[in-house]
Amino acid sequence: MKEFNALKLQCSDLLRDPRNLELLRLLRADPRMSLSGLARRIGMSAPAVRERIARLEEGGVIRGYRLEIDPRALGFPIAAMVRIRPMPGKLPKIIELARSTREISECHRITGEDCFIIKLHLRSLDELDPILDQFLAFGQTTTSLLQSSPVPPRALPLPDEPPA
């Protein structure tokens, strides 16, 4: 807990700096912007920008860089959300199975009667039953096919931005 509070304090210190916020705004808009481009936009040298980015990474503000590939481009046109209610003592088995199932892109532990919600991608509906059958050995599933995503994943507002 002490480590979490120290990280929280360090993050809040980093997010008080207007140049750090502008740097995050620029990276959010274009994660591939070059160091020299970032430096030019915020009026600093490239080495100073590199150092700021390193501090933001070390402080846990920036947690990584991801490449988002459209699942349909990879041949996975169907997405589903599956809620799982484990049998007693089977939580570790569900976690292990979710981690080893390549079609699962997300797994979240949630509150309520169901303990997990997973997102999986399928080439066809024929692939759904074999995946669900593996989970049914450890608990009860409830599946919903995704029709559309009117609000795709997006970044949260920065501290100096008003909420929507």
Tell me what the structure shows.
By secondary structure, the chain is of the alpha+beta class. It has two domains: 57 residues, Arc Repressor Mutant, subunit A; 75 residues, Alpha-Beta Plaits. It has six helices and four strands. The chain has a four-stranded antiparallel sheet with strand order 2-3-1-4, covered by helices on one side. A hairpin with a 6-residue loop joins strand 2 and strand 3. Helix 3 packs across helix 4. The longest helix is centred in the first third of the chain and has 13 residues. The chain is elongated, with a radius of gyration of 21 Å. The two termini are 31 Å apart.
Features of the shown structure:
164 residues, alpha+beta, Arc Repressor Mutant, subunit A, 2 domains, 6 helices, 4 strands
Cα-atom Rg, whole angstroms?
Answer: 21 Å
Distance between the termini: 31 Å
What do we call the CATH topology of the largest domain? Alpha-Beta Plaits
Along the chain, the helix and strand elements come as: HHHHEHEEHE
Number of domains: 2
| CATH architectural category of the largest domain | 2-Layer Sandwich
**Helix vs. strand class:** alpha+beta
The gross shape turns out to be elongated
Strand order of the largest sheet: 2-3-1-4
Integer average pLDDT: 92
Q: What's the name of the CATH homologous superfamily of the largest domain?
A: Lrp/AsnC effector binding domain/regulation of amino acid metabolism (RAM) domain
The biggest sheet amounts to: 4 strands, antiparallel
Percent of residues in helical segments? 25-40%
The CATH first-level class of the largest domain comes to Alpha Beta
Number of helices: 6
Strand content: 15-25%
* Unreliable parts: none
Q: Report the strand count.
A: 4
